[in-house]
Amino acid sequence: MKIRMPLEEAERIALKYAEMLAPKCERIEIAGSIRRRKPMVGDIEIVAKPLMSTDLFGFSTGHQDLTLPLPTSKNGQRYKQYLLPEGVMLDLFIVLPPAQWGVIFAIRTGGAEFSRKLVTAKRYGGYLPSAYVVRDGAVHRVDTGEMILTPEEIDFFNLCELDWIKPEERN
């Protein structure tokens, strides 16, 4: 059974794990229901963009491994899930190319219906202009496959022709 906890407790736990991962990250943020300021939280979602690793000569060896010293129930390159000792699930979403921060952070902030609309074409009742598709965490033109840069949420909102919507107002 999924536990629910008060926002303040979930936020304290989320900050603890975000701080553990931060030294390996270019950027890390808490998303999901904590970011939306829901009074009760069922899980913790963190979005992280890892730093590049380099060798002794300064050459890139890939991205830092974002792993917590805990067992995982899902342990992919872009998504890891942990049952924390505090009894709550942590979903870690890792932004790796071609994924764009703006797309992933907006989708993982939610809520579920809002996220679904962000990746659904307008002709099907969503927000995404029909000339685009979200694939691999990035926006691409349907006709050419060209990736559209969305380094921030506001860039994704602008592409969708949406005014800024505060996280706590997203359903």
UniProtKB/TrEMBL annotation:
Domain (DNA polymerase beta thumb): residue spans on this chain: 109-171
Organism: Bellilinea caldifistulae
Domain of life the protein comes from: Bacteria
Lineage, highest ranks first: Bacteria, Bacillati, Chloroflexota, Anaerolineae, Anaerolineales
Pfam families xref list: DNA_pol_B_thumb (PF14791)
Name of the protein: DNA polymerase beta thumb domain-containing protein
InterPro entries per record: NT_sf, PolB_thumb
